[in-house]
Amino acid sequence: VLIPYTIVNVYPHDTSAYTQGLEFMNNVIIESTGRYGFSTLRKVDPLSGKVLLVKKMDPAVFGEGITILRDTLYQLTWQEHIVNVYDPKDFRLIRQMKWSGEGWGITNDGNSLIISDGSDKLYVVGPSDLKLRKVLSVTDHLGPLNNLNELEYVNGHIYANRYGYNFIVRIDPGNG
User: Fold this and answer.
1) Across the 176 residues of the chain, what is the mean pLDDT of every consecutive 10-residue run?
2) For 99, phi and psi rounded to 5 degrees?
3) Please, what is the Cα angle at 22 between 14 and 35, to 5 degrees?
4) Taking every pair of C-alpha atoms in the chain, what is the biggest distance, in angstroms?
């Protein structure tokens, strides 16, 4: 089923930023950018595109998806198997947690984190310990859908872009 959309506005944005994760909090964009040597976590004014706060990541880390759950910011790393946990107000690192797979996209349903690793699987995990609660196998009428990347949880559904494709999929969190 195609979901209709309308572009209502266009805003300035740093075109050199390889956006991996994006959240809105208190009328500010929280953005995770990726690329080895250039990964950052930043706050951006959505109207001007001006970067208000930036935290540069270790050059050996590729920043990936982000989500905010209960005033805590979670940031995936791509191949480093680390989830960084920050205070979203000032990007103070609270702790790091080990993650078993690659980190692509992350969102939350208000209780659990939902993580993608580039496969057709979504991992529903506890926010305090990343303990596995559920695995969703994502399929459509043709079979498994891989390359699930950045995730968003909206109105009871998970939305994911498929890296390398020009569309977004809507996923039922009950059955994939």
Assistant:
1) 89 94 95 97 96 97 97 97 97 97 97 97 97 96 95 96 92 95
2) -125, 140
3) 60
4) 45
The amino acid at 10? V
> According to the model, what pLDDT value does residue 38 have?
96
Q: What token pair was written down for 161?
A: 């872009």
Whether the pTM exceeds 0.90: the reply is yes
Q: How far is residue 155's CA from residue 144's CA, in Å, rounded to a whole number?
A: 23
Query: What's the residue count for the chain?
Result: 176
Q: What is the pLDDT of residue 4?
A: 87
- Cα-based distances in Å from 176 to 27, 57, 120, 149: 32, 33, 9, 15
Give the pLDDT of residue 151.
96
The residue ranges of DSSP E strands in the chain, in sequence order, are: 19-25, 28-33, 40-44, 51-56, 63-69, 72-77, 82-87, 92-98, 105-108, 113-116, 121-125, 132-137, 139-140, 143-144, 148-154, 157-162, 168-171
